[in-house]
UniProtKB/TrEMBL annotation:
Residues 125-249 form the DUF2520 domain. InterPro entries: 6-PGluconate_DH-like_C_sf, DUF2520, NAD(P)-bd_dom_sf, P5C_Rdtase_cat_N, TM1727-like_C_sf. Gene3D superfamilies: NAD(P)-binding Rossmann-like Domain, ProC-like, C-terminal domain. It comes from Pedobacter aquae. Pfam families: DUF2520, F420_oxidored. It comes from the Bacteria. Residues 3-89 form the Pyrroline-5-carboxylate reductase catalytic N-terminal domain. This is DUF2520 domain-containing protein.
């Protein structure tokens, strides 16, 4: 398939390279900020375009890889040919957002955190696909199975649930890493001290379910330790509230296990 990618952010960088590696040429790159489109185009050997009307007639697949709120406005500017398949890559945006512009519509959703500076093995990234009609579904499946060994049919509601779960598992967790970093820096502690713990926690949930791997004072309902931590966080109201709310949720989740300790 000949492909045009609309967007030049982290997703666009990684997905474009993975598509090319799988033998699907990315011919054109567009971005509202032209120099970003040029940078990505130079990186992958594509042409950069400054106007959405410049998409070539031999493009088979147009991938919208922009912010969620911009998907519909970008799609509206396109002059699509009947045979061209239009997809977006959002985890929280329904497929239907594309249907006012074409019925050859779909979604490619790689479930991963993307940073330009960090290389990824796309073959190990779970990718959810959805399309409006059977022929588009088959076309996306054939494309994506060349990218990843983990390809799934996921509808819009399932994708929203998956995206929400990913925010808890990745984005919120990374924010907590940042809080840990700040706490340690305040006392002159090196963040490297806690990296082995982070690695072990991540490795553990590859072997058992997170509910089985939970440890810590809230799991034990150790109110004495919890209060010491809350006292330590007294000067940062936001962090103290986070700690308190999350601890309460953990205590509630494991109430049966900790009832004997109350």
């Amino acid at each position: 398939m000949n492909i045009a990618v609309l967007g030049a952010g982290n997703m666009a960088w990684h997905l474009s390279k993975a598509l090319i590696h799988a033998g699907h040429p990315v011919k054109q790159i567009w971005n509202r900020t032209a120099d970003k489109a040029v940078a990505l185009a130079l990186e992958i050997g594509a042409d950069s375009i400054t106007n959405l009307n410049q998409i070539d007639t031999d493009i088979d697949l147009i991938i919208i890889a922009v912010s969620d709120e911009a998907i519909a406005s970008v799609a509206k500017e396109l002059k699509l040919l009947p045979q061209q398949l239009l997809v977006h890559t959002s985890g929280s945006t329904v497929l239907d957002v594309l249907l006012p512009f074409t019925q050859k519509a779909g979604v490619i959703y790689p479930l991963q955190t993307f940073s330009k500076a960090v290389e990824l093995d796309f073959s190990q990234i779970p990718i959810g696909i959805e399309a409006f009609d059977e022929s588009s579904t088959q076309a996306l499946f054939n494309l994506v199975k060349a990218l990843s060994t983990k390809t799934y049919y996921i509808n819009s509601q399932q994708r929203l649930i998956l995206h929400t779960a990913a925010v808890f598992a990745c984005n919120f967790t990374n924010h907590f890493y940042s809080i840990a970093q700040a706490l340690m820096q305040q006392s002159g502690l090196d963040f490297n001290l806690i990296r082995p713990l982070i690695q072990e926690t991540a490795a553990k949930v590859q072997q058992v379910l997170p509910s089985e791997a939970q440890t810590g004072p809230a799991k034990r309902n150790d109110q004495l330790t919890i209060q010491k931590h809350l006292d330590l966080l007294q000067t940062n109201t936001a962090w103290k509230l986070l700690y308190e709310q999350i601890s309460q949720d953990i205590v509630k989740m494991y109430a049966k296990d900790t009832s004997s300790l109350k």
